[in-house]
Write a structure and sequence with these properties.
Layout lengths: L6 E7 L16 H10 L2 E5 L5 E3 L6 E5 L2 E6 L2 E7 L4 E7 L5 E8 L5 H4 L3 E5 L8 E4 L5 E4 L5 E4 L11 E8 L4 E6 L2 E6 L10 E4 L11 E10 L5 H12 L2
Parallel strand pairs: 1-8
Antiparallel strand pairs: 1-17, 2-17, 3-4, 4-7, 5-6, 6-17, 7-16, 8-13, 9-10, 9-16, 10-11, 11-12, 13-14, 14-15
Helix pairs in contact: 1-3
């Protein structure tokens, strides 16, 4: 039986939107990152260089919505989200069967605890069958793959604002297994079950189902794969992104 899988690459950041300055680790290997993503055969890859456009791979499209603008990011242009009503919608639907991965570079403009609402990173929200990655108001990162509990990681809040970090999350509904990677290293694991067969629309910066979770910061370099990223894959993408 063919096992389908999915991975997502996202780069989030803060720039002229808030007047904040990003610090290390920086995404310096722009050409290397783009080449590495394309070489890994994603099914969608959003570089977010304009207010709307097409995936570099596949037929899906994206469009900035509400208080989302295009400005300077860590890898050229990026989508800048105001934390109030800005987000990015796409025409990518489903594509997740039993296994999935999501990868993101993140640089928040402020802590969710200060904003008093969740910061949605990306995913496919569906009642009772989540595939959602978000920071919550206790400043913890949580990854939901069912209709209930989540795998979580608590990064040092002092390192979150104006600093770049790479997030990768993976799920395997058959194993079952879930992992969170932070800056290329595994930081949380569980054998909790995941619900397969996600069919909802893919979105960035806010959930169109669970509203009011507008991310405050930027988002860039979003990609979607039809396989699970291994630990070696994660390390290679981190190296490609941070090596000049």
């Amino acid at each position: 039986m063919l096992k389908l899988s999915l991975s997502i690459l996202i780069i989030l950041g803060v720039s002229a939107l808030t007047g904040c300055k990003s610090t290390s680790p920086t995404v310096s290997g722009v050409a290397g990152l783009g080449a590495s993503v394309k070489a890994s055969s994603p099914i969608a890859y959003y570089r977010l260089e304009a207010a709307k456009g097409s995936s570099e791979i596949g037929a899906s499209t994206y469009e900035l919505t509400g208080g989302a603008t295009v400005g300077s990011g860590s890898t050229g242009n990026a989508a800048l989200l105001d934390g109030k009503d800005g987000w990015i919608k796409t025409t990518q639907m489903g594509g997740i069967a039993k296994t999935a991965s999501l990868m993101a570079w993140v640089n928040l403009a402020e802590l969710p605890s200060a904003a008093h609402h969740y910061f949605y990173v990306a995913g496919e929200s569906q009642g009772g069958n989540d595939f959602d990655l978000q920071f919550e108001t206790d400043d913890k990162l949580r990854f939901f793959t069912t209709g209930g509990g989540a795998l979580e990681y608590a990064p040092d809040p002092k390192t979150l604002v104006n600093q770049w970090h790479m997030i990768v999350v993976t799920m395997d509904a058959d194993a079952p297994a879930k992992v969170i990677y932070w800056d290329g290293q595994p930081v949380a694991k569980s054998q909790d079950r995941s619900t397969p067969n996600k069919t909802a629309a893919f979105a960035m910066g806010n959930s169109p189902v669970f509203g009011g979770r507008f991310l405050h910061g930027g988002i860039d370099e979003v990609a979607l794969w039809n396989r699970v990223l291994s630990a070696d894959d994660v390390a290679a993408l981190y190296k490609a992104a941070t090596t000049k």
